[in-house]
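Repro:
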Amino acid sequence: QVQLVESGGGLVQPGGSLRLSCAASGFTFSNYWMYWVRQAPGKGLERVSSMNTGSGSTVYLDSVKGRFTISRDNAKNLLYLQMASLKSEDTAVYYCVKDLGGRYTFWGQGTQVTVSS
């Protein structure tokens, strides 16, 4: 069955960095756009970043441009989100999502990122 397992979250000080990973299985990873979506406490969902199947096209939320980098390794079925210069407002649960809004959408369980001194 389809599985998306996020890892790499944690507590980091403002200005610090983290790399999130998402291990995909149960489907042909290279066939799907992949997304990182976050939800901060008491707020709605935000689409942080997305990447097309061949890693040639990326989209970022304005507030993370220049700080976050999405990447994928289709050979290893892995999706990444490198986060730098983290701010308190980046605190959220980060979800790895397959085919967001599409017919075959699927969400991981999420990983908590907390930016605090």
